[in-house]
User: Fold TRAP transporter small permease protein from Thalassospira lohafexi.
Amino acid sequence: MAVSPVDPTHSDIPASIVPDALPEQFPEVSGLMGHAVDKVSSVFAYGFILAMGILIFEIFMRHVFNSPTLWVHETTTFLSAIGFVFGGLYCAARDKHIRVVIFYDIVGPKMRKSLDVAISIVCMTASGFFAWAAWLMVKRATLTPTGDIHFETTGSAFNAPYPGILKLFLLVILILLVVQFLIHTINYVRKTPVMPATAKE
Assistant:
């Protein structure tokens, strides 16, 4: 017999591992932007599958035909890198970024709300500083001293513009992180503190 996710005898088991549990709800604090990030996340997940596929292709070409490629290593590194960079925004959109909960778990709902607001402000500020640093890096990676657009390349025989594209992508993600944490801050301020289930019993 399946155990209900609201069964009080199993309140310590996360809903995601309880049989027949409902899918985890998307956090309301992330707003419409969080939903949009969640919708496009599968594109970057498929990027890892594509990277694996072209690595297998490289093994086949190298060891069967003795004809290694010039582009596989750099392309798989690029695909993996943009996936990991996007992962930071995805974690923020899912409100699953790392927290130190030694104090968070022992305080009441009002203090938790205050901590949520403070954490969001700190994360937004940090993301803003990183975005500024990324912009300085992007200027060097995408513009020549004369102001012409020229993306930084790998400098290899393949010489793809992956470094410049990756740095520009990082800047965009950091700007979106600032916006996402701003949305978190606003929604946490508006949120009514809820007493934890264990405290009500």
User: Anything to note?
Assistant: The chain has one domain: 28-93+106-192. The helical segments are 31-63, 72-93, 109-142, 162-190, 197-200.
